[in-house]
Amino acid sequence: MALTAGAAGAFALLFGATPALADSHTNATLSVLHAVPELPVDVYANGERLIDDFQPGTLTDPLSLPAGAYDLALFPADAADGSGEPLLSAMGVELPAGADATVAAHLTEAGEPALTPFVNDTSEVAAGEGRLTVRHVAAAPAVDVRAGGEVVIDGLTNPNEESLTVPAGTVSADVVLAGTDTVAIGPADLSLTEGATTIVYAWGSGDAGYELATQTVQAGASAPTGVPGGSAGLAADEGMPAPLVGLTLAGLAGAAFAGRKYATSRV
Question: Signal peptide location in the record (predicted)?
Answer without folding.
Answer: 1-22
